[in-house]
Amino acid sequence: MEDRIEKLMELTGLSRPESRKDGFWFTYTGNDRKKLSDAMRSLEFRLSTATCLERGDGEFDVIYHFIHRSISVNIRITTKNQRMPSLAVFTPSANWIEREMRDLYAVSFDGHPDPRPLVRPPQMPEGFFRKKVAESLLKESEAK
After folding, report:
1. Which of 19, 43, 69, 108 has the fewest Cβ atoms surrounding its Cβ within 10 A?
2. What ranges do the domains of the chain cover?
3. Secondary structure (H, E, C), 14-69
4. Contact at 8 Å (CB) between 60 and 53?
5. Which residues pair with 51 in a beta bridge?
């Protein structure tokens, strides 16, 4: 396995990743975003983007996608009560991505340095990409 991946596991306590064509996939259950951010920075990974996936249990999976040259590392973190600690505090490039996820999915990032809305139009409710909210908005629109 790639030396950087072994070192990442050592620095963060992450268990062995799933190795796929699109990179290495980790599940992170810890809350120490500083440790995660410091490890990625020390190994010269940069945050490329992040994705938010709605789960069937009312929670969300936030996946941070990091890259270093040809190595892709994807770290999946599940929210608890639709909340999780912010990575943007330690990795500034996560700032707008987390704000966008808050607008679209109503995921709260505790400790975020700038929680103002980013892309949500004022007339739209927070979390308007959530399935139930989107369906409700669609029914409202069709009723008019």
Report:
1. 69
2. 3-143
3. CCCCEEECCEEEEECCCCCHHHHHHHHHHCCCEEEEEEEEECCCCCEEEEEEEEEC
4. yes
5. 63
For 59-128, the three-class secondary structure string (H helix, E strand, C coil) is: CEEEEEEEEECCEEEEEEEECECCEEECCCCCCHHHHHHHHHHHHHHCCEEECCCCCCCCCCCCCCCCCC
Please give the model's pTM, rounded to 2 decimal places: 0.89
Distance of alpha carbon 48 from the chain centroid: 11
pLDDT digits (tens, 9 = 90+) for 95-113: 999 999 999 999 999 999 9
CATH class belonging to 3-143: alpha beta
d(CA 80, CA 37): 20
Bridge partners of 84, per DSSP, are 109
pLDDT for position 130:
80
Chain mean position to CA 128? 17
